[in-house]
């Protein structure tokens, strides 16, 4: 496990290969910078999805935040395997700031790689409750 700079000059933890992924199990991998949510972002979300529920916006932002925090290397392929539990909290509103915190909660060895479960918590600045908590499942194949 080591640190590198991402495209946006944020520190990103790099897990290189199965041994590094296994060693990072039950570790907090980091927290993103704050992202300002303005009315234009919410309107674009509503226009593109047809949903008024900004809890789903919080869920979709996990795919934005995750690669800003962690990068997995040393595999031939990575596959989004879906999600485990998803818990929604307060809705995101225009003017909020959100960020994500990522913990690698579980690693399961597979015949051709590993499966990870990362808990992604989308926090709202000033709120005691997160906008959502997602258990993201990924498979990393040799």
Overview of the structural elements:
23% of the residues lie in helices and 49% in strands. It has 142 residues and is α+β, with helices and mostly antiparallel strands. It has one domain: Thiol Ester Dehydrase, Chain A, CATH 3.10.129.10. The strands form two sheets. Strands 3, 4, 6, 7, 8 and 9 form a six-stranded antiparallel β-sheet that branches. A three-stranded mixed β-sheet has the order 1-2-5. The longest helix is centred in the middle third of the chain and has 16 residues, at 54-69.
Q: What best-fitting shape do the alpha-carbon axes yield? A: elongated
For the record, the count of structural domains works out to 1
Count of extended strands:
9
Write the CATH homologous superfamily. Hotdog Thioesterase
DSSP summary: helix tally: 3
* Structural class by sheet pairing and helices: alpha+beta
Sheet-strand content, in percent, reads: over 45%
Average pLDDT metric: 92
């Amino acid at each position: 496990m080591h640190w590198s700079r991402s495209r946006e000059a944020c520190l990103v933890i790099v897990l290189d290969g199965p041994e590094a992924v296994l060693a990072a199990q039950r570790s907090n991998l980091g927290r993103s910078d704050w992202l300002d949510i303005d009315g234009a972002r919410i309107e674009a979300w509503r226009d593109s999805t047809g949903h008024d529920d900004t809890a789903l916006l919080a869920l979709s932002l996990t795919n934005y935040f995750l690669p800003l925090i962690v990068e997995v290397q040393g595999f031939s392929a990575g596959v989004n395997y879906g999600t485990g539990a998803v818990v929604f909290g307060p809705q995101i509103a225009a003017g909020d700031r959100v960020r994500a915190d990522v913990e690698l909660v579980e690693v399961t060895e597979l015949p051709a790689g590993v499966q990870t479960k990362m808990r992604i918590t989308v926090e709202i600045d000033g709120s005691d409750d997160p906008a959502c908590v997602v258990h993201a499942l990924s498979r990393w194949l040799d």
